[in-house]
Amino acid sequence: MTDRLITHLRHLDIAVPDYARQVEFYTNLWGLTPIAADSGITFLAAEGSPEQYVVRLREAEEKRLDLIAFGAADQESVDALAHRLGTAGVRLVSEPGKLRTPGGGYGFRFFDVDGRTVEVSCDVAVRQHRRVEEKEAIPVKLSHVVINSPDPERTRAFYERHLAFALSDTLFHPKLGEAMYFMRCNPQHHSLAVARGPHVSLHHASFEMRGIDEYMRGTGRLLRAGVKKVWGPGRHLAGNNTFSYFLDPHGNTVEYTTELELLDEDTWHPHLYDFTQPEVSDQWGTANPMDEFVAAESFNDPDRGVFVAPPV
């Protein structure tokens, strides 16, 4: 799309009360690498990713989603997007300027239609990353983020109108209607998805593994450690990616995945998938069945950060 200024997903920032336990989980169990830390804040990188960090953890009295960050090509794109949003009445949290987070860069923040803080940046220094080796069961990168909204049609429309995200596929239920919109900002099937939920919250964050073997080894490591598995292992139809969902210590759903589909955007036509069909949820048939109890695990707690910008 000629008016698409967003290039990719950068990182997810969350705040939690039990900060030490959360850092322990994401480093020693999930497989991310601490690259910087200060009092009550830790930046975690994925070894295979050029992004400075893919998760930021912050200590706070209440659990919340601090922000979702996306990349842009250059300062001109950042400025153009800030101007476009401001002119359209979107509430800016900060004006474009220099970033003080690891890697520096240039960016700004705004509230989306549900009150989430979103950051867009460019010129962030590329982190020295490496090839993840065979049998090394750690995340290569942050794959995608899924958010809950009580009005997902409105949320989808916001990202389409203001950020030029495109719809890749939709999940629906014959009696309940459309339930999830998979949205892309590049040829990857989705970098963002919007799910129908009872309140604004994080649905899940997904991390890409090197391949099927590494994905299964990572899944097994968490199972042996007694981490609560929500759903999987299996392979979705929409996106054709593998999935194993777990709960972090504060009840956020996190996913190991691999092989997420890359689309030819010029020829792709969105599908409407009935997720009551077993093969839609899991082509392999190896995961525990999707039901209302599995779905409810990813509703998460109501986000305390709605229309409240994070302090850092």
TrEMBL record:
GO terms for molecular function: dioxygenase activity. Residues 8-123, 141-259 form the VOC domain. Keywords: Dioxygenase, Oxidoreductase. It comes from the Bacteria. The keyword Ligase does not apply. InterPro entries: Glyas_Bleomycin-R_OHBP_Dase, Glyas_Fos-R_dOase_dom, GlyoxalaseI/FosfomycinResist, VOC_core. This is Catechol 2,3-dioxygenase. The lineage of its organism: Bacteria, Bacillati, Actinomycetota, Actinomycetes, Pseudonocardiales.
